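queue> pop job 88
queue> type: inverse folding (structure -> sequence)
queue> payload:
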């Protein structure tokens, strides 16, 4: 059986592709230049799901992950954020938006109830974020 790569090894591969001695195409990419590829890869995931093609779905999910990793690597190179920040942010979001699973809120009894809670929490977070943005602007 072939050895499997780890997540950490994949992060190192992406960093190497973008390094000075990496691939010229990968090094040239920006967030903006990669937008069409992100759309294409997401469309291919949807197509694999519709076709119930697990082999292709696995491959296409990997391609979407590659897009995420490349965007995070570009941001890290610019000193903006890292893949660890992306992972931390999404984990925190999942915990915040599921108090019925990770907190002490009553368990959601239906799919609709769970979605309604998600939307309510998301709306509150958006309002708080907007308030912080306005406060920052006023303090400038």
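queue> result:
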């Amino acid at each position: 059986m072939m050895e499997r790569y780890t997540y950490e090894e994949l992060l190192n591969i992406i960093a190497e592709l973008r390094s000075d001695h990496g691939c010229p195409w990968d090094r040239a990419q920006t967030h903006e230049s990669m937008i069409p590829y992100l759309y294409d890869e997401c469309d291919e995931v949807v197509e694999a799901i519709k076709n119930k093609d697990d082999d292709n779905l696995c491959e296409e999910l990997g391609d979407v992950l590659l897009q995420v990793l490349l965007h995070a690597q570009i941001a890290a190179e610019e000193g903006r954020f890292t893949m660890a920040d992306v992972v931390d942010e999404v984990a925190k979001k999942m915990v915040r938006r599921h108090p019925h699973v990770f907190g002490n809120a009553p368990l959601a009894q239906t799919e609709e109830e769970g979605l309604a809670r998600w939307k309510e929490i998301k709306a509150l977070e958006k309002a708080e974020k907007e308030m912080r943005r306005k406060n920052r602007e006023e303090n400038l």
